[in-house]
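Model it.
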Amino acid sequence: MVDSLTDGLKVRHLTMMGLGSAIGAGLFLGTGAGIAAAGPAVLLSYAIAGFLVVLVMRMLGEMAAASPSSGSFSTYAEMAFGRTAGFVTGWLYWFTLVMVMGAEMTGAAAFMGAWFGVDPWIPALVAMVVFAAINLAKVSNFGEFEFWFAAIKVTVIIGFLVIGTLLVFGLLPGSDPVGFANFTGLGGFAPNGVSGIAAGLLVVAFAFGGIEIVTIAAAESKDPALSVGRAVRSVVWRISVFYLGSILVITLLLPWNRLDEAQSAAESPFTLVLQQANFSGVVGFMEAIIVLSLLSAFNAQIYATSRMMYSLALRGGRRPAGGGRGGRRPVGGG
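Modeled.
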């Protein structure tokens, strides 16, 4: 049984979709919590999590290329282990994303409500109507919206890396080379030891969430075997560079014991670094980027949840009576 979906997504859509889902408010606001837990050794947390993401994404990419399905890992679990496994995997993923969507929109609406002086539910309602309309239209329209959302975030990260590198080497006016003082002082590279690195992994693992949407979208790409392979490879190395590069810049420039989970754009490590470059309006700029990140993630999550539910409905989304393997059968393009 093959998903009867259109094929309006291109490689650039898939690539930016994965990047846009992973580069969100968790990177801009949650980075400080990971650094506070592990110190500069949070780089190891990111490296470990990144390595695991590479393994998972390459395996998912292989399966998506061979048998593209909007159910992705839920479909593959059902093909391998039976309907119960597919049912549990699919509905747990759907439920988790629905909960995260609420958090994303709550955060974005709080910022937008303060900007326009209205109750947060008003911009939340407007945004939900707009994104619902986008996702109900052609999938290529969704792909274009998500492409440009993600492109803005990627541009910001690249700009941050350039400015941060100039600050590290003292190449901006009023700045001096920082060296490795934050790595050797304040308790050393791993001030909280292995337990700190493990605690950092909890924050990091959440930040990497969303990349799997690439394999869900593979079912609607023009040439899944080619598109998903290129997109997965591109997403993996770009995410590694953006995340590890950003964290390296932050830990070189900011003492780890000054950071914690940011409650506002003003407390974001990215804001604190850019303020060292004496840019005006940094807080307002970061607020706009954080809102954009939240809305982009919300848009992608509407897509992922709707496609997962569609796939579950197509396969019969009820748990089979009696549990167990539940009568394994080929599904989703196999």
